[in-house]
Amino acid sequence: MPASVRAPFAVLLVAACGIVGCASAPELPRAAVVAAGSRAAVRYEQPGSRLVLTLQNESAGPRSVVYSASGTDPGLKVVADGSLQALLDVFAAKGLFTMQGSEPGPGTQDVLRVEIDGRRWTWTRRRFGDSPADQAVVEAKAYFLELYNQSLATHSASGERPDFRDENSRARDDAAAARRRLQSSTGAPR
Fold this sequence. Notes:
The protein is of the alpha+beta class. The chain has 5 helices and 5 strands; from the N terminus they run αββαβαββαα.
């Protein structure tokens, strides 16, 4: 993410989270509220690929329960309610909640969805879109990804540690095959 996007996001997120204790902190608009105990989620999707990333508020279900549940979306991360609220406030500051939403269609590059208490907002960006609405979605996506990438998720399919023996064996076999190809192409033993 470019530094020009990271810096304003950091300032907005810090201000929105209330970490800055001074009275001169900028007030961000609030268009959607994360209510404690109710599920709120923000999802980013790339149509045409299998990439789906979701942030969910922690009070809707503790991390340990969400991550250990069978069938849990592997792209799901649980974040503090305040962090998700701050992200939604940044979306509001970018004007997303006042824009008319759109469902994905042909040529859609990015999709952002917000779901809170049965209400749903969807914004899309078309491939090569350069309208103000497309630009707002690009910026909102950058904010979403910043929070997503800063968050840790510990999904588990079972209580056991993962077994990487097969993967290690495959990597060794691939390395040996590459070594043989290199030796045969140069004619020199190594």
